[in-house]
Design goal:
CATH class of the largest domain: Mainly Alpha
CATH superfamily of the largest domain: Helix hairpin bin
Mean pLDDT: 86
Radius of gyration: 41 Å
Helix content: 25-40%
Number of domains: 3
Number of helices: 4
Structural class: alpha+beta
Low-confidence stretches: none
CATH architecture of the largest domain: Orthogonal Bundle
Largest sheet: 6 strands, antiparallel, barrel
Distance between the termini: 85 Å
Shape: elongated
Amino acid sequence: MEKTKKVFRRIILPILVVLLLVIFVVTKLGSNKEKMEATAAISNTKMTVFPVSVIQPTMETITQDFELNGSFIPDHSLSFVSEVAGRVKTLNIGNGDYVTQGKVIATLDNEQIRIDLQLAKANLEKAKSDLGKYEIMLQSNAVNKQQVEDMKMTVRTSESNVQTLQRQLKLSTIVSPISGIVSNVSIEKGSYLAPGTAIAEIVDIKSLKMSVKLLDNQVVRIKTGQKVSIVPDLYNTTSITGSIASISPQADGSRKFDTEIKFVNPSKTPLKSGMTGKVQFKFGGTKQALTIPLKCLVGSIQKPGVYVIEGNKARLVKIEIGAVDDDKLEIISGLTTDMKVVQTGQLNITTGSQVSLIQQ
């Protein structure tokens, strides 16, 4: 009997205690899970209604002018490379130097070319002399016509060799192809150039171009040669007159048309390639247009849309826009003045979302 009690206390009782603890923990966890699920359900129920504020599109008098941001690029820019092989003997340029068209900027060691040219000229003279002899011998039938023709081919080949070496000799003196400022010099005195080796870049910024991108409803209103006003960001009180130089006939991937505006770089307020500014396209006059605040827009200018409220639900509507002002959009199609357009809260909703209207 005493032995049985010891077994109960040492083995069975601890097992019973552990089992009771396990049952208690499982029961507690189950109860907590039910409470958490109930809380989440209540939270989800509360979040199915989203607060939004709305406005109605209004008819306003707007200007037909528009303004775009853009960047300045050089009118002429050239990256040029070596056309012949050789070691740089002299180098006459450095980054930032101004060079004129035709200026010698580097020379290559051309001693071997000169030697080869002398030999080629000697071979040409000999070939011409031999051809004269063959033509005389042909009259006495000492040689045949085919031999004379072969000699004529030798003369032409020799002339070609001389011309090739003369061209190589000329190219061993590297001259600037345009006038401009030197940048990215990639050679130095003593370096060896192979054909195709990059030498430098020359940028002509006496005249610049401004690159901008126009929407389809904007590009149809402009034409090449049209005068525009450019305001550089660096000199925002200065206005420069430019003219539209080119308009891309095809839109890019963002459905915009690349347009370039050419102007003379002002000497008093000089600009550099890569700077930015604004261009103003002025047409004069005003018009009546349906407008909404810019912050109503969902998506991008290329694929514009807004949410409208019907009853207590949201619906995404595609729109077509015209002029884009600082904080307003001209609506060409998709909306009417009696629609309720979501102004704030649109980031939290999708088509079909239930909403409640709040006052701002």
